[in-house]
Amino acid sequence: MADAPDSPSSWRTIAAVVLVAGGLLLGGTVLLRTLHPANGVSAGTDVRSVAFVDAQGQRHTLAEFQGKVVLVDVWATWCPPCRKSLPEVAQLQHAEDGTYVVVPISVDNGGWDDVKPFLAKHPELGLTAFVPEGPKALDAFGPITGIPTSIVVDRQGRLLQRWSGYGEGMAKRALDEALKAH
After folding, report:
1. Domain boundaries, the chain
2. Which burial class, exposed, middle or buried, applies to 33 when counting CB atoms under 10 A from its CB (0-12, 13-18, 19+)?
């Protein structure tokens, strides 16, 4: 016998269909962001002016890394996908061999007041993190509408690739591809 249209099992079925559809829509959005990585900023855009600050208050720009491929990871302490990606980001940072640099930039509203306690709670990461120099410091990357956002910069300081979301191994593959191509 079929369930009545307003029975609890009918509502559970409808809720399950809505959840599956929402998941597919979210997955499609992440896929589109990956397939169209520049998000309004063209590949080849000069991003050497992007400025960030280390834990000691020292200002840096991507121009310092001229001649190296740079992987920038834009993240926040409160972001679950960011937390999932940080061990991979830290592993890539620890494996730096002089041909590339990994620059994790936290966009937490509290800046270092949020980041330092997080890093202290997670010493296993051994992550060297940064925060943007100011509210417009990352503008050269274009709008960052989701985090984590990963950006690969070539040896001349130009944007090569950009995507939002975390997929295991994506950052390593993009970095390897950039190192082989340039």
Report:
1. 1-35, 39-181
2. middle
pTM beyond 0.70: the answer is yes
Q: What is the radius of gyration, based on Cα positions, of the chain?
A: 19
Residue 62: C-alpha distances to residues 17, 34, 46, 53, 162 (Å): 46, 23, 10, 11, 15
User: Are the C-beta atoms of 86 and 75 separated by less than 8 Å?
Assistant: yes
Tell me the pLDDT tens digit for each residue of 19-75: 554 554 444 444 434 434 444 677 889 999 999 999 999 999 999 999 999 999 999
Phi, psi torsion values for 97, nearest 5 degrees:
-120, 15
DSSP 76-103: -TT-HHHHHHHHHHHHHHHT--SSEEEE
CA distance 22 to 163: 21
Class of domain 39-181: alpha beta
